[in-house]
Amino acid sequence: xxxxxxxxxxxxxxxxxxxxxxxxxxxxxxxxxxxxxxxxxxxxxxxxxxxxxxxxxxxxxxxxxxxxxxxxxxxxxxxxxxxxxxxxxxxxxxxx
Length: 96
Hints:
Structural class: mainly beta
Shape: flat
Number of strands: 6
Strand order of the largest sheet: 1-6
Order of helices and strands: EEEEEEH
């Protein structure tokens, strides 16, 4: 196995992602609560919590560990990212 995520004996190698320039990294993620259809309509156990970390193509040295990495939200955009009233602001420039 020639994968930098795994050791020669097939065990996953943990990685620690950090920045030498920024003490706190903000990863883009989404969460939601939704009702489990098989459970009774009323009751807190019906509501399932789900979450995900958004990823993108890995850049620089991180690409040697894995082909994708978390989307990092710049510190000056934390408030925007966390504002539930904002929609459609986080877009990439058009490739054309």
